[in-house]
Amino acid sequence: MEIHGFIKTTLLDYPGHVAATVFTGGCNFRCPFCHNSDLVLQPHSGPFISEDDIFTHLKKRGKILDGVCISGGEPTLEADLEDFIKKIRALGYKVKLDTNGYFPDTLARLCEQGLLDYVAMDIKHTPEKYNTVCGMKHFDISRILSSVSYLKERCVSYEFRTTLVREFHDKEDMQRLGEWLCGANAYYLQPYKESENVLMYQIPFSQNQAAHLPEKLHAHDRETLISFVNLLKPMISNTAIRGDDSCESCL
Predict the structure, then answer these.
(1) What is the pLDDT of residue 41?
(2) Cβ distance 219 to 191 under 8 Å?
(3) For residue 118, which of 40, 28, 17, 241 has the smallest C-alpha distance?
(4) Terminal C-alpha separation, the chain
(5) Do 126 and 176 meet the contact criterion of CB atoms below 8 Å apart?
(6) Domain housing 228
(7) Residues 20, 10 contacting (CB under 8 angstroms)
(8) Contacting residues for 235 by C-beta, under 8 A, at least 6 apart
(9) Among 48, 165, 199, 203, which is most exposed with the fewest C-beta within 10 angstroms?
(10) How far apart, in whole angstroms, are the C-alpha atoms of residue 233 and residue 240?
(11) Which bin fits 193, alpha (ψ -120 to 50), beta or left (φ > 0)?
(12) Strand spans (E) along the chain
């Protein structure tokens, strides 16, 4: 499997676990607020990390690490993902998968084989507005709907999460998201964070204009984020803000 990033130890990527995180390259989405633009647009321009190096580290750190997070990019694009996870689990590690959910058959197969302990699925927008941010030429919302429905059956521990951008997400959108995801196990709101690595800033402005994207992106203020949490909690009781220290009181 092609691995283009590796965090040897993290307390953040896999809730409740000391983990390592593996990053695959490439993605079928082109979300303008994505902060991993290098992995999405130019995966082969960065480092390539061999599986041997990954497994050598995991074997050495077995007394410290208890989980591995597989992120991206979009990991479910990798043909060798299933075999890679089997090798990880053979070492006794739990596995968390970060995914955009566009390949529900792959997700279901991995879950039903007992290869995943936790799934974090990114929810980009309401079903009606989904492709306004993920930017696919031939987008099929039924794939996203299928993955959401599958995870809500709770055959595996999971969370939904949305990166919130002021130019894309408003109160009405949050109401619709709450109605759609109602009853979910957990829903995390992640404030947009400005960075030179944001995908939109790596694409020629003329292309952004053609896609009707704003010139600049912004996060919502703290009060707005809290209001979104309060709006969503009656529908998804475990709603919280993640990744904003100023909103610790919302957690």
Answers:
(1) 85
(2) yes
(3) 17
(4) 36
(5) yes
(6) 3-250
(7) yes
(8) 178, 179, 181, 182, 183
(9) 48
(10) 9
(11) beta
(12) 3-10, 19-24, 67-71, 94-99, 118-122, 157-164, 187-191, 239-241
In terms of Cα–Cα distance, which of 138, 134, 117 is closest to 27? 134
Sequence-ordered alpha helix ranges (H) in 19-170: 37-41, 51-60, 81-90, 104-112, 131-134, 141-152
CATH number at residue 24: 3.20.20.70
Q: What is the pLDDT along the chain (251 residues), one digit of tens a residue?
A: 889 999 999 999 999 999 999 999 999 999 999 988 888 888 777 789 999 999 999 999 999 999 999 999 999 999 999 999 999 999 999 999 999 999 999 999 999 999 999 999 999 999 999 999 998 989 999 999 999 999 999 789 999 999 999 999 999 999 999 999 999 999 999 999 998 889 988 876 556 655 678 889 999 999 999 999 999 999 999 999 998 654 443 44
| CB 198 within 8 Å of CB 33 | yes
Q: What is residue 131's predicted lDDT score, i.e. its pLDDT?
A: 94
Token couple for 4: 């283009």
Number of domains within the chain: 1
